[in-house]
UniProtKB/TrEMBL annotation:
<keyword id="KW-0723">Serine/threonine-protein kinase</keyword>
<keyword id="KW-0418">Kinase</keyword>
<keyword id="KW-0547">Nucleotide-binding</keyword>
<comment type="similarity">
    <text>Belongs to the protein kinase superfamily.</text>
</comment>
<feature type="domain" description="Protein kinase">
    <location>
        <begin position="23"/>
        <end position="225"/>
    </location>
</feature>
<dbReference type="Pfam" id="PF00069">
    <property type="entry name" value="Pkinase"/>
</dbReference>
<dbReference type="GO" id="GO:0007186">
    <property type="term" value="P:G protein-coupled receptor signaling pathway"/>
</dbReference>
<dbReference type="GO" id="GO:0005524">
    <property type="term" value="F:ATP binding"/>
</dbReference>
<dbReference type="InterPro" id="IPR017441">
    <property type="entry name" value="Protein_kinase_ATP_BS"/>
</dbReference>
<dbReference type="GO" id="GO:0004703">
    <property type="term" value="F:G protein-coupled receptor kinase activity"/>
</dbReference>
<dbReference type="InterPro" id="IPR008271">
    <property type="entry name" value="Ser/Thr_kinase_AS"/>
</dbReference>
<dbReference type="InterPro" id="IPR000719">
    <property type="entry name" value="Prot_kinase_dom"/>
</dbReference>
<keyword id="KW-0808">Transferase</keyword>
<dbReference type="GO" id="GO:0009966">
    <property type="term" value="P:regulation of signal transduction"/>
</dbReference>
<dbReference type="GO" id="GO:0001664">
    <property type="term" value="F:G protein-coupled receptor binding"/>
</dbReference>
<feature type="binding site">
    <location>
        <position position="52"/>
    </location>
    <ligand>
        <name>ATP</name>
    </ligand>
</feature>
<keyword id="KW-0067">ATP-binding</keyword>
Length: 225
């Protein structure tokens, strides 16, 4: 299917400042912790995107401002066609907005719930694309820290894309991290043990995902130790 990880980034300039008026607002497709997600169309290019609303008051209430700022900074560094890229970002008085690649194929959680398990050839294909995406992130010293089926979206052609960088972080000077972050079922032992960790934790999570896709159940830490 010929996948190359990096692509040319779209210009973030639209004759000056980008704002909501540059887009036609279409249907709602979901709701996150800080607001809804809806399909929008760029009025000039006619390109479809996913517009993520992030309510400022909710961010402050949930003490998530630092995470949102970190997520945006990380997304600004990323340009890979196996990741849900941020194409534009702007704000108004009430909301922050992220304009993201639109994925029409659903997430792997949806497909796993629908199918129960997946054929090995499907899992090999998804594993290869997830690995390419992780390699790209790690080349930028970015750790995702929340690889799970819910955060792997499929496009209209069935290619896998990593999404949700809310708890992603950057490694500085190869210094191991000690903070606990991630979804428990997919979290690497070294994170829980607080012995310090680097990007290898994403590979652990990917392994758990592949096991779950193949067998329809999660491999838990209690079964490993």
């Amino acid at each position: 299917m010929g996948v190359v990880c990096c692509c040319e980034r779209e210009s973030l300039e639209l004759d000056g400042e980008v704002n909501l008026s540059h887009f036609s607002l279409l249907r709602s497709v979901g709701k996150g912790a800080f607001g809804r997600v809806r399909v929008v169309q760029h009025k000039t290019t006619k390109q479809l995107y996913a517009l993520k609303y992030i309510n400022k008051a909710k961010c402050i209430q949930m003490k998530a401002v630092e995470n949102i700022i970190s997520e945006r900074k990380i997304l600004e560094q990323i340009d890979c066609n196996l990741i849900v890229n941020m194409r534009y970002a702007f704000q108004d008085e009430d909301n922050l907005f992220m304009v993201l690649d639109l994925m029409l194929g659903g997430d792997l959680r949806f497909h796993l719930d629908r199918l129960g398990t997946m054929p090995e050839e499907y899992v090999r294909f998804y594993a290869a694309e997830i690995a390419l995406g992780l390699n790209y992130l790690h080349s930028l010293n970015i750790i995702h820290r929340d690889i799970k089926p819910d955060n792997i979206l499929l496009d209209g052609k069935g290619h896998a894309h990593l999404t949700d960088f809310n708890i992603a972080t950057t490694i500085v000077d190869s210094k191991p991290l000690t903070s606990i972050a991630g979804s428990f079922a997919y979290i690497a032992p070294e994170i829980l043990l607080k012995r310090g960790y680097l990007s290898s934790v994403d590979w652990w999570s990917m392994g758990i995902v592949c096991y779950e896709l193949l067998f329809g159940k999660r491999l838990t830490l209690l079964k490993i130790y």
